[in-house]
User: What shape does this take?
Amino acid sequence: MAVSTHQSDHGGNEPPHILVVDDDVRLRRLLSRYLKENGFRVSVAEDAAKARDHMTGLIFDLIVLDVMMPGENGIDLTRSLRDETGVPILLLTAMGESEDRITGLESGADDYLTKPFEPRELLLRIRTILRRMHAAPAALELPETDALTLGGLRFDAVRNMLWQGDEAIRLTESEANLLRTFAAAPGTIFTREDLADGDGSGSGNARTIDVQITRLRRKIEPDPKFPRFLQTVRGRGYVLLPDGQG
Assistant: This one.
């Protein structure tokens, strides 16, 4: 299946397009109506197969995806999509244990919301992800020495992208947020609590930060098992040592 890596199929004035994937027809209708009332375009799918059908012809700004579905579940679909597209994914699940959240983040999801939830919280999470995907925070500017370089990689904080030559390596919302934080203060040691507090989504904690660091290392390190750039400072936290600071 050919899936575009672009984040949006809309022009500058059209609202973001969201794909809601859930086998619960009542919840699909409720979410579709609520999101449309709040200014989004919405498509719906009852399972992973239908979601894939939608994605062959449309480009979405974000996917709201249920974990527990018959057939291919949300975790498996997320892992599969991460090999094909960089579209942000927000997982919905009735399982609220920390291990379930970590599994969701490890699969490549940008955020994780436990059922039942307030529709306003879902709206907040969606807007937070989209805002970070399309704009760089003013408080986290890279130094004037131009973009951050990590070996053969170059980090563009405005577009939340890693570049290896002319090839773009898309970061999830949480990965980009972490890398922007490190890039704004290279050489500074950040504790897990510092990084969790700066997550902004309300879902961060020390354990999930470790998961996100592991995922980020897979994208920036020549050998993730022996980090060269994003290093662990035992008993303190993490530090980014870009080229020239190692």
Observations:
- The chain has eight helices and twelve strands.
- The CA atoms of residues 7 and 87 lie 6 Å apart.
- The mean pLDDT is 81.
